[in-house]
Amino acid sequence: MTVSIRLQIKTHYKDFSLKEQKIADYILENPSTVSHSSISDLSNTLGVADSTFFQFTKKLGYNGFKEFKMAMLMQENDLSAISFHENIQQTDNELTMAQKVFDSNMTTLTDTRNLLTEENLKHAVTMIDGSKRVYFFGVGGSEIVATDAYHKFLRSPIAVYHSTDFHIQLMEASLLTSDDCAIFISHTGKSRETIEMAQIAKEAGAKIIVITSHAGSPLAKLGDVVFISISEETEFRSEALASRISQLSIMDALYVILMFINREDAQKSIKKIRQSISKIKENN
Q1: In whole angstroms, what is the distance from residue 155 CA to residue 157 CA?
Q2: With left for phi above 0 and alpha for psi between -120 and 50, is residue 205 left, alpha or beta?
Q3: Residue 137 and residue 75 share a domain
Q4: Which of 24, 56, 80 is the last residue of a domain?
Q5: pTM, whole model, 2 decimals?
Q6: Is the torsion defined by CA of 19, 25, 30, 34 positive or negative?
């Protein structure tokens, strides 16, 4: 499946230069104008050199402006459908505000789903299934996603580990081997602590899965498999909050696929857990 220009721009936006971000903003805001204009007209409008616009299209994976413009024409409906769902106004009532938050979350999930590939999902699950141990790493808001994943994967037949403390995570990373798989979660992909842990894991030979919102980030470059979680930027909540929903969904998908692959052993694990929990509930 071809990734749309809109998603390509959103995925790489934070890695663009200021001039490239200016071009990206104009494309998203004026898709019809861009798809029916020459490179010279667009460059003059934006006050950039033709070569700058040309290199921007190359950065998105096109051979040049002609191929980019053709893709724009084919994807015009997708680009024109852009809506900043969470552009909450002072005059909005509480229900409207809540609905806009839900709309933004649904857009985040749809965009992230459209970036998934069968190849990446198969590769990631094969790495997890073939490892002796699986560790989840994340700091700050990403630690919440890592903890949720750990809580979920405890039900699987795979040995999983996670600590909420950064220093313990750092020690765990140093003890990884080529038999292990490490899953790193970071919205920006630029968290110094997470990058340090990933570098240590890489040097140890561990298999690395990265979940981030920025494809060109330092953390993404360390991953054997990288999943991109798309999110909208809003005024009163950080992108990381929106991306968390898509990151949780990516982890859910990997968990479900893994459990179906190991259906018999997975059922045994779940049965043991349910029996233990049911005893506690009965005592209460």
Answers
A1: 7
A2: left
A3: no
A4: 80
A5: 0.78
A6: positive
